[in-house]
Design a protein that fits this description.
Number of helices: 4
Helix content: 10-25%
Largest sheet: 6 strands, mixed
CATH architecture of the largest domain: 2-Layer Sandwich
Shape: globular
Oligomer: single chain
Strand content: 35-45%
Mean pLDDT: 88
Number of domains: 2
Radius of gyration: 21 Å
Distance between the termini: 39 Å
CATH superfamily of the largest domain: DNA ligase/mRNA capping enzyme
Low-confidence stretches: 292-296, 324-330
CATH topology of the largest domain: D-amino Acid Aminotransferase, Chain A, domain 1
Length: 330
């Protein structure tokens, strides 16, 4: 039984599609977690190999709902809102997350559950080389319905129909997965994510001074890593903050101030930029990608909005491979 699994990651595309060689799933907006089940106990591990088990004590019963002695499941820990939709905001409240990775008392009245969508190991058999469709059949056969775990079902061939359902219900998007693909412990084009509301994680590399009645700072300066490992400027986000988050993030920015510019190439900011060490990851919602200014540093995020800081993502994971912003980004 493998002791470590690096989750398979999806590549973003812009539009849904129909294809008999693919299956389509809802994209759950929670925390990715691999579940290692051994002899009646479960160990939950994040995509960055961090232990999550203690965060979610209600998931300790997960082995009761898996008809196996030893198994490895891939899935997502999710908090649902009153309409039964996954809510990342509720997830942050549930874990007691605070900016910069600091912990407060978790809101234990926000329940979580585990949506399982893949089965990687089962009682002595490594299933990672099997086609996805066979792994999902085995997962459905060993998973029992329960309060703490659910099977993440899928549509055959009809991605457009599932995308419209997700749009109507206000969900984040869908995933398309090639039926015949094995499990690959890396980002792959055999798994695709199609978002309804464009969202990605960016590195914070600086901030601009406040204007008018604004306190602390004006906007955060964002970037993504290219294939050469260089941090490329992708825009600024000045909206999405309230007075509390401005003060909290301002403290974190000041602690990381540096005279060394973390970005490669030009930074197209209208105001002076104060540089910070590229250690904070921001969740950003945006309208679309636009071309960079002439002679500038590449494509930029249009109308970016700050949603929160992510303590479950490494800054080095914030790459252009998350998205396909434009053909100008190489």
């Amino acid at each position: 039984m493998p002791a470590e699994i690096h989750p398979m990651l999806a590549t973003s595309i812009e539009k849904p599609f129909d294809d008999p060689d693919w299956l389509f799933e809802i994209k759950w907006d929670g925390y990715r977690a691999v579940s290692f089940i051994e002899n009646g106990k479960v160990r939950l591990v994040s995509r960055n190999q961090n232990e999550l088990t203690a965060r979610y004590p209600e998931l300790k019963d997960l082995p009761k709902f898996v008809k196996a002695k030893n198994a490895i499941l891939d899935g997502e820990v999710v908090a649902l809102d009153e309409q039964g939709r996954p809510s990342f905001t509720l997830m942050q409240q549930r874990t007691g997350f605070r900016p910069g990775g600091r912990q407060a008392a978790p809101k234990t009245d926000v329940p979580v559950l585990y949506y399982a969508f893949d089965l990687l190991y089962l009682d002595g058999f490594d299933l990672r080389r099997l086609p996805l469709v066979e792994r999902k059949k085995k997962l459905a056969s060993v998973l029992l319905p329960g309060d703490s775990v659910r099977y993440s079902d899928h549509y055959e061939r009809e991605g457009n129909a599932l995308f419209e359902i997700a749009r109507e219900k206000g969900l984040e998007g869908i995933l398309a997965k090639k039926k015949a693909c094995p499990y690959q412990e890396r980002r792959s084009s055999d798994w695709l994510k199609i978002k309804i509301r464009h969202r990605l994680e960016c590195v914070i590399g600086g901030y601009t001074p406040p204007e008018g009645s604004r306190a602390h700072f004006g906007s955060i300066v964002l970037g993504l890593y290219d294939k050469q490992g260089r941090l490329i400027h992708t825009g600024q986000a000045g909206s999405g903050f309230n007075q509390k988050s401005l003060a909290e993030i301002w403290k974190l920015l000041r602690e990381r101030e540096t005279k060394q510019k973390p970005f490669y190439g030009d930074v197209e900011a209208l105001r002076k930029v104060n540089w910070v060490k590229p250690e904070l990851v921001a969740e950003i919602e945006y309208a679309e990608w636009t071309g960079g200014a002439s002679g500038g540093s590449g494509p930029k995020l249009r109308a970016p909005v700050f949603l929160g800081l992510r303590d479950d993502k490494d800054p080095k994971e914030c790459t252009f491979d998350q998205e396909r912003p434009s053909e100008t980004e190489k």
